From TrEMBL, chain A:
Range of residues in the leader sequence: none
Matches recorded under Pfam families: CPSase_sm_chain, GATase
Species this protein is from: Salinicoccus kekensis
Phylogenetic classification of the source organism: Bacteria, Bacillati, Bacillota, Bacilli, Bacillales
Pathway listed: Pyrimidine metabolism; UMP biosynthesis via de novo pathway; (S)-dihydroorotate from bicarbonate: step 1/3; Amino-acid biosynthesis; L-arginine biosynthesis; carbamoyl phosphate from bicarbonate: step 1/1
Name of the protein in question: Carbamoyl phosphate synthase small chain
TrEMBL record, chain B:
SMART domains: CPSase_L_D3, GARS_A, MGS
Protein name (Swiss-Prot/TrEMBL): Carbamoyl phosphate synthase large chain
Binding locations of Mg(2+) 1: 284, 298
Function, in words: Small subunit of the glutamine-dependent carbamoyl phosphate synthetase (CPSase). CPSase catalyzes the formation of carbamoyl phosphate from the ammonia moiety of glutamine, carbonate, and phosphate donated by ATP, constituting the first step of the biosynthetic pathway leading to pyrimidine nucleotides.
Enzyme Commission code: 6.3.4.16, 6.3.5.5
Pfam families tied to this protein: CPSase_L_D1 (PF25596), CPSase_L_D2 (PF02786), CPSase_L_D3 (PF02787), MGS (PF02142)
InterPro entries: ATP-grasp, ATP_grasp_subdomain_1, CarbamoylP_synth_lsu_oligo_sf, CPAse_ATP-bd, CPSase_dom, CPSase_lsu, CPSase_lsu_oligo, CPSase_preATP-grasp
Source organism phylogeny: Bacteria, Bacillati, Bacillota, Bacilli, Bacillales
Amino acid sequence: MLNDIRYLVLEDGTVHEGYKLGADAESFGEIVFNTSMTGVQEIITDNSYTNQIITFSYPLVGSAGFNFEDSESLLPTAGGVVVREASEHPSNFRCDENLDQFLKRHGIPGISGVDTRSITKKIRTGGVMKAMITDSSDHDSTVSKIKDSTDATDQVASVSTRTPYISTGRGPRVALLDFGKKENIVRSLNHRGCDVTVLPHDTPAAQILDMKPHGVMLSNGPGNPEDVQVAIETVKGLIGKVPIFGICLGHQLIALAGGARSYKMKFGHRGANHPVKNLLTGKVEITTQNHGYAIDGNSLENTDFEVTHTALNDGSVEGLRHKSAPVFSVQYHPEAAAGPHETSYLYDQFIGLMTTEGGQTNA
Amino acid sequence: MPKRNDINTILVIGSGPIIIGQAAEFDYAGTQACLALKEEGYRVILVNSNPATIMTDKEIADVVYIEPLTPDFISRIIRKEQPDALLPTLGGQVGLNMAVELDRLGVLEENDVELLGTKLDSIKQAEDRDLFRNLMNEMGVPVPESDIITTIEEAYEFVEKVGYPFIVRPAYTMGGTGGGICENEDDLKEIVANGLKYSPVNQCLLEKSIAGFKEIEYEVMRDSNDNAIVVCNMENIDPVGIHTGDSIVVAPSQTMTDKEHQMLRTVSLDIIRKLEIEGGCNVQLALDPHSFDYYIIEVNPRVSRSSALASKATGYPIAKLAAKIAVGMTLDEMQNPVTNTSYAAFEPALDYVVSKIPRFPFDKFEKGERKLGTQMKATGEVMAIGRTYEESLLKAIRSLEYGVHHLGLPNGDDYDLEYIIRSIKAQSDERLFFIGEAIRRNVTLEEIHEWTRIDMYFLNKFKHIIDIERQLKDNKNSIPHLKWAKKFGFSDRVIGHRWEMTGSDIFKIRKEEGIMPVYKIIDTCAGEFESNTPYFYGTYETENESIPSDKEKILVLGSGPIRIGQGIEFDYATVHAVWAIQEAGYEAIIVNNNPETVSTDFSISDKLYFEPLTHEDVMNIVHNENPKGVVVQFGGQTAINLADRLAEEGVTILGTSLDDIDRAEDRKRFEALLQDIKVPQPHGKTATNEAEALENARHIGFPILVRPSYVLGGRAMEIVFNESELENYMRNAVKASPEHPVLIDSYLTGKEIEVDAICDGENVIIPGIMEHIERAGVHSGDSMAVYPPVNLSQEEIDTLVDYTERLAKGLNIIGIINIQFVLSKDGIFVLEVNPRSSRTVPFMSKITEIPMAGLAMHAILGKKLSESGYPLGLQPVQPGYYVKAPVFSFSKLKNVDVTLGPEMKSTGEVMGKDDTLNKALYKSLVASGLDVKDHGTALFTIADKDKSEAVELAKRFSHCGYRILATKGTAVALEEADIPVVTVEKIGEGEETLLRAIQNGNVQIVVNTMTKGKEVERDGFRIRRESVENGVPCLTSLDTARTLIEVIESMTFNMDKM
């Protein structure tokens, strides 16, 4: 039986009593939920969750354990983890440690033993809110601490690489702007032979073009796209000059650079089962998603962009392409990890663009 | 794409009788599909031979045919109805095979019938082992080394290449019939020969054994626009080697990382895209526990048992959507019927854990071979849902109704460790419980893993359960420990046991401490979208989502897993009761734990609680809902057995009062009643020990019928001819005690009559009287029954009606009652009264068009029968003849004796109806799988007491053109009667034995009656098993044989010389 009590306190005063998990630390952050039933390691190490407290709606978390291969970043930056049960004895041939050990090693606090479904439902009805994981039983003081906390606006800077580095390949040269990228973006490109240069998020357009890449990839990343003005400027300077492929935050930055607007969703899309309609083929793709902001479809009017993908359930914008330039983007994660692999064709599409358009622009 | 408008009428083929490997899941799928097609405006024509199903109700399809599922009969229906299309993928393997056959015969083309859904070529490609393997090779998808063989010699060649062990899978069979694992040459000879025999195309797949790999299943769907999704993935706790139907299964899978999951998901979807499946499909894969290596095991291009389980586990109605896909609709245009706020094109996310445990028939077939393998043996299954794995597992265990309540055996301490270890290694159906016992004795998990190959994840979970047990023991009366144990699914009874209290004591403590379960919605989306689906499971968490409405509510208890003696008929009655409750304006709430059934479709009731049917779990629901009352009449003995203790807790039992139920079931009180109302019964007494039994038996006179009180399906019931047999019975077959006495009755030979009636306390409606073909002594569930009765005089009918009315009124029945009578030379006697819905309710309801369960439910709710619109008393006789015939699953259960007796053995039933009795009999025999031919060879081996009767039958067979074989003694009797007969040697008496004759396919019918005595019994057993295993009908009752010859005579021209 577990004894060490810990609390999850929500902004609205709701208190969940549970047990200590992971690091001995407190944590503030926006509380979100993810409905994926696998890929806990990939999710926790996805830097798009920077400072966020992730609630797993599936109750048995980490049953296949954590290994040294499946992380999406070396240093996970999630604010905290909320689970119904943290698997104590995970089992898988690659398993190296359990959830508790992994979180401790990375200094991330967590809480187990709470009714995660009720939290999910609260977020669904009330929208995302702030929360705190704490050992303190003075809940009034916790709530006021939560209310006094301010949102960080420099999250991308905090997770982006500070210096460029290369992950080599023999194929097209890709400049990957790192806003908090998932490793599997690099792996997906490398897997297709690309030579990838990972660049800091604030690398200016001129410097990128000087490198003569065959294409530019804009990665996912945490937070509000409007906080990353520097990148919006960069994208403006790249459109039309080089093939561009944007994912998640990268997709939003492309849209903002093109003149569209973004908005904060009530509770976002986070999971591995999101149906997206590909308007070009008429087919449904099951996608991995992790975003709290989206592009306002109406704001695309009078821009050079058109919608290529929409979310089947709420109709929100899931993919765009430039009407004339080789630029396209999706809100979801074709690199999966965790999640379905069926949209990896987008990487092939990007390679295709680079080998035709990219070749010409840089010739 | 919108639905097709170029078709109007659709024929749906059901799956026929319930047998092992093909059970109630197809009633669920078929019902959903028919309703879905009707919802889209199509005219649905249904054909199924199984009367005990909801799908054969007139409400479900526009036109219903209850006819044998043979190409012959279906062709006639097609020619008559001229449907535009045929939907073959919802009736299990039977439906699918039928469609293949109709196509082969050209019937579909001739009548311009289009096959809907998955194309026939795809079906063949998935089902034909060779084609499938080639396709996998072409796709680069790994399949185990294998070869298709059609002879034993080829099997030897295979072994030379691949070696032992290897698996035998016969082509085109269901539930792995005839398959197995060969470890050596003896196995090869037996299993391969069997497999070739069972395959309708005499073809087997031999496959390198990958036993020990994880077995993972993906339930997938695809539409005509190539949208493809995974509805659910499931992990079998038992590794590859045990049939998935016999495996303990968990959903979603637990021990795969996202990498393995996505790898298998991708390949599953690739396969259904390649096969161009349009509808649901099941993909089974084997995953190496130590690498990313995997193999495809098989693909079922249709809805299946697994898809029913996946539907119930996720809420996602696969069959319903598969039917709509078949008429051209696509996943992205159909709403998710669970949320109604999202679309069907998505993959369900669970926020709970589901466990499925199969229900085996070995409580009835004690001598059956219990080792599990590739041949499915379970008759049914239970499912349970929890927020912890332990909770889902323990809830599933207590849903089984085996007398086990926890991870262990009730008398677990009695076994020595060696026996426990041997039992685990034996890979029997009880291994889970023995593993619990082993952990309790500190056997290491590593050792258990070595023996069972069960993943350490699950073994650690099992150990956690044992750890909690110990903590409870060490912390008596600790509320935190109580709370903790409840979160992991411990029942009050088990906690009470550790605390030396009763379950009720614990319930009281919980109530005081506010430790009550909450109920959560199964919504397919883990709470992401709003959903008002009234589909709940209980768990110990904070937020309760099952908020009771203001309406008056009636709680209906279901009948749990399908088992021999309690089948789909009870689900049928449960569903009808729910409909009646709703008609009467109440809220109808179902509690049940069987994932295969219609009653656990959340769209049937106002609220569905998917929970174990135990006192505690039902009381928790009562506590949450506060219903007006609980109905126990329709859920078989499962529900009746709960009534007592529910009433003790102050719960109102609706309908026949508990006291009156007891009067029907308590021997002494029942006798008193019969004396009172002057209805005779065979002389009988009760005994609580051996001495008393012997004394009573002497008094009554042999033969006697003995059985324990409160039984299900004639369990442990025997006809006993002398004192030594009785001693043996009392010592070995029952545990008699003052609370559980043994009933001893005079065994009367005679015609058995069965009556179901509805009573409102004042008046009685008797839809009809059924006459059994087999004389009393054969369990009513195993007897053929005929409506209307053909051998009863008006006077006898009047007496039966009179007795029925006296019994119903005498017992103050409010609702339904089932009575069995025997018509002996001394008159009519009542044999048994069941104050509840019975097996024959759907059969009689369908014949008479009186919705008996509904009518009974209305009576329970206070509506007078005089206002029902039906005349009171016995209803007018319906035109035509209707025959109910039992169907058995003996070929799947090794070592089980097929002799009919007072213990029920059949798993399902069929109905034959026609204008004349012989035609109806013919149909019922054909529908039950008998090949009724006007010539062939019949083998007679008859007990001395039956010889004169058998001689007359043999003569008639001979006269019709049958060649008669007989064993020595029987042959002598036949020769004396001038019947041409060939004598065959008994077992072991020379070369041409009768076993060889059966094995060589030289016998078409075996007629065998039981002889007492060790050696002859053993011989008889071998003869009967040999016929079953060779697919030769074995008739053990001369009454069945007489019926068969009558039918054959009626269809045979007379060949007398001039």
